[in-house]
Design goal:
Family: Belongs to the enoyl-CoA hydratase/isomerase family.
Order of helices and strands: EEHEEHHEEHEEHHEHEHHHH
Protein name: Enoyl-CoA hydratase/isomerase family protein
Structural class: alpha/beta
Number of helices: 11
InterPro entries: ClpP/crotonase-like_dom_sf (IPR029045), Ech1-like (IPR045002), Enoyl-CoA_hydra/iso (IPR001753), Enoyl-CoA_hydra_C (IPR014748)
CATH architecture of the largest domain: Alpha-Beta Complex
Number of strands: 10
Strand content: 15-25%
GO molecular function: delta(3,5)-delta(2,4)-dienoyl-CoA isomerase activity
Largest sheet: 6 strands, mixed
CATH superfamily of the largest domain: 2-enoyl-CoA Hydratase, Chain A, domain 1
CATH topology of the largest domain: 2-enoyl-CoA Hydratase, Chain A, domain 1
Radius of gyration: 20 Å
Shape: globular
Low-confidence stretches: none
Number of domains: 2
Subcellular location: Peroxisome
Helix content: 40-55%
Length: 280
C-alpha cells in the first residue's frame, strides 16, 4: 500500500499497481496556482519520491477547460507580486523576492528531482506555470484541444520558475523558444508535437490521461532500480558533458549493477514470464 496522502488542492489516486495519479483540483479557477498550492505540490512530490509503493506518476488537471491556466494573478497581486510598503530599501526587497522565487522554483523542481518518472497529460488551457511544471516532468502528452503559452511577458515579468532554463533543452531550438517566450503567443498541440515539446497528441483529455496511465504502468512494470537510475543519469547528462555523463554512469552503475533485478529480468525473458521486483 502507498503511504497516506491528504493534499487539499490535489486529488491523488492509485489507478494501477505502483502508479500514482496526481490531479490538480481547482477546476472552477481553471486550476490556477496560488502560494499554498505550489507549496503543497512540492511536499507531495517529495513524499511520492520516497514512497516504496510508487514507481511512476502521472499528472493531469481536473475539469474540461484547463490543465492549468498558470499563476492565479489576483492572488499573486496580493502576495508575491504585491508592493511592500513597509520596506523601502531596494536591496532588502530584493532579498525577500529572491527567497520567494527560490522557494517557488524548488516546489516545481521537486517534480524533476522526484526519483520516479513523471508523465504529464495536458488539455485545454496550459499556460505559464503549466509550461514550467510540465518541463520539469519526464514525458509530456496532450489532448488535441490544448492551448499552450509562455505567458509571463503578458504580466510584466520574465518566466522565472524553470521554463527559460528547461524548455530550450527539451526542444533544442532557441529560435522557437524565443518566438513563444518573447511574444506570449498561443501555440497548439500540433506545433508542440512538431517541435518536440510533447511526445503524443490525443483526440480528447480522457484519451490523453489514459495514454499517460498506460505509459506509466509500463514504466512501473520495470525494475525500479533500472528506471530510477535511468532518470537520474539522463537528467545528469543533460546538464554535463558526454565525458562527465559517462563517468557518472560508471560510478552509479558500479553500485546499481549489484542488484538482483538484473538476474530477475534476464530469467523472466528466457522463461517468458512477467518479472517481479522488490520495493525500493
Amino acid at each position: 500500500m502507498a503511504a497516506n496522502y491528504t493534499p487539499k488542492y490535489f486529488n491523488i489516486t492509485f489507478p494501477q499497481e505502483h502508479v500514482a495519479h496526481v490531479e490538480i483540483n481547482r477546476p472552477n479557477q481553471l486550476n490556477a496556482f496560488f502560494e499554498a498550492m505550489w507549496i503543497e505540490l512540492g511536499h507531495l512530490f517529495n513524499q511520492l519520491s520516497t514512497d516504496p509503493a510508487v514507481r511512476s506518476i502521472i499528472i493531469s488537471g481536473a475539469g474540461e477547460k484547463a490543465f492549468t491556466a498558470g499563476l492565479d494573478v489576483k492572488a499573486a497581486s496580493q502576495g508575491l507580486l504585491a508592493s511592500d510598503s513597509k520596506t523601502t530599501d531596494p536591496a532588502r526587497k530584493a532579498v525577500h523576492l529572491r527567497r520567494e522565487i527560490g522557494g517557488f522554483q524548488d516546489c516545481i523542481t521537486a517534480i524533476e528531482k522526484c526519483e520516479k518518472p513523471v508523465v504529464v497529460a495536458m488539455h485545454g488551457f496550459s499556460l505559464g506555470l503549466a509550461i514550467d511544471l510540465s518541463s520539469a516532468a519526464d514525458v509530456r502528452y496532450c489532448a488535441k484541444d490544448t492551448r499552450f503559452a509562455v505567458k509571463e511577458v503578458d504580466i510584466g515579468l520574465a518566466a522565472d520558475v524553470g521554463t527559460l532554463s528547461r524548455l530550450p533543452k527539451i526542444v533544442g531550438n532557441f529560435g522557437w523558444v524565443k518566438d513563444v517566450a518573447l511574444t506570449a503567443r498561443l501555440f497548439g498541440a500540433e506545433e508542440a508535437l512538431r517541435v518536440g515539446f510533447v511526445s503524443r497528441v490525443f483526440e480528447t483529455k480522457e484519451e490523453a490521461v489514459k495514454g499517460a496511465l498506460e505509459l506509466a504502468t509500463l514504466m512501473a512494470s520495470k525494475s525500479p532500480i533500472a528506471v530510477q537510475g535511468t532518470k537520474e543519469l539522463l537528467n545528469w547528462s543533460r546538464d554535463h558533458t558526454v565525458q562527465d555523463g559517462l563517468r557518472y554512469t560508471t560510478i552509479w552503475n558500479s553500485a546499481a549493477l549489484q542488484t538482483s533485478d538484473v538476474q530477475s529480468a534476464l530469467l523472466s525473458g528466457i522463461q517468458k514470464r512477467k518479472p517481479t521486483f522488490e520495493k525500493l
